[in-house]
Amino acid sequence: MRKKLVSLVLGAFTTATLLSGCSDSTSSGTNSGSDSESKEKYSISYSTWANPGEPAYSGMEKFKEFVEEKTDGNIEVELFPGNQLGSTAEQMEQVKLGTIEMMSSGDPGMLEIEYLSLPYLMKSNAHWMHVMDSEIGQEWNDKLVSDMGVRNIGILPRGPRVISANKEIKTPEDMKGLKLRAPARDYYVQTFEALGSNPTPMDFGEVYSGLQTGIVDGQENPLETFYAAGFQEVQKYIINSNHMFKPAFVTINEQFFQGLSEEFQDILLEAAKESQVYAEEKLAESEQSMVEELESAGVTFVDPEIDAFIEATQPVRDSLGKEMWGEDVYQQIVEMGKADLN
Fold first, then answer.
1. How far is CA 326 from the centre of its chain?
2. Residue 101 near residue 256 (C-beta atoms within 8 A)
3. What is the rounded CA–CA span in Å between residue 97 and residue 140?
4. Is 297 helix (H, G, I), strand (E, B) or coil?
């Protein structure tokens, strides 16, 4: 498996190198009109944590289909699901270096953006985009381009994050002492400490066995991730806490993006929007069927006292939000996060 990963990464690096050489020698072809035979040809390696069947990955498949059709095959997109090219951090580094061109993940590349995941700060994925489309969001993306050489061109929606356990949880008091697997980020750790649990960082690949053996008592993730990972085999309850919205970000190497013609850039941006809409549709379609299948497998869904969860995590939002953005920007983001978008 290690040899396969190395081979894939080297292959992506070789492709990027060859394409760079091609761009140098035939740069006039990029802006040569609509004749597909006279345009340069490109290959995009697009990696992700998501697996086939997940709505986010379906969105990536739509991106591939749209780009290849609209460019008459002059841009080919190769998808790498399931972290085939390494961890999220390793994939981000490859995008920065240009050894792969694109990735989608929960890592937007900078903390100012990532902290929109603070508990109960954003009401939906649409509120994320409301912030990202604002002047504040544009400043962040400009900084991402200038400082890191990557650009966010959209999101792939994920469902709200929920908690699973082998006990019913209605209030924060019910979480006291619960060993809960959570990512090793301060806003995750502080959120679940505020709710009374013992957050336990663990690589996602180890979570199933950790739940099975009792190393951890529960975990938190979007419903579609719970379903795809088969956690229903080792967890009895899903608590509809909806404590965070955290979409996947579509990130592209800036040098590669700027090396494309304006026509091709527009196609990629349009494809990102189309893939988001498609993934949203797939997510909505699959949610009810997932619930039905999970209930048939013996999982019980619990609606907790959300107001109590919101109140318990207020200090986390206030402290980390003000620390990250400052008082004024934090208050602007709070308002955007609860805005009426209808």
1. 25
2. yes
3. 20
4. coil
Structure tokens at 40: 């340069």
Q: Contact at 8 Å (CB) between 54 and 224?
A: yes
Predicted confidence at residue 51, as pLDDT, reads 86
CA-based max dimension of the chain: 66
Beta partners for 179?
198
Low-confidence ranges of the chain (pLDDT < 70): 1-38
Token output for 102: 């694109």
Domain ranges of the chain: 2-27+40-109+124-156+248-286, 161-245+287-336
Provide φ and ψ at 38, rounded to 5°: -95, -5
- Taking domain 161-245+287-336, whether its CATH number is 3.30.365.10 is answered by no
Rg of the chain over all Cα atoms, to the nearest angstrom: 21
Packing angle, helices 135-148 and 327-337, rounded to 10: 120
Token pair of 1 as six digits:
């498996």
* pTM of the model as a whole: 0.80
Name the CATH topology of 2-27+40-109+124-156+248-286. Answer: D-Maltodextrin-Binding Protein; domain 2 (3.40.190)
- Return the half-sphere exposure (C-beta side, CA atoms, 13 A cut-off) of residue 159: 27
Residues whose CB falls within 8 Å of the CB of residue 126, separated by 6 or more in sequence, listed in order: 341
What is the distance of C-alpha 70 from the center of its chain? 25
Determine the Cα–Cα distance for residues 55 and 249; give it in Å rounded to an integer: 14
Q: How far apart are CA 186 and CA 164, in angstroms?
A: 20
Q: Which of 188, 147, 187, 160 is nearest to 324 (CA)?
A: 187
Q: Is 250 strand, coil or helix?
A: strand
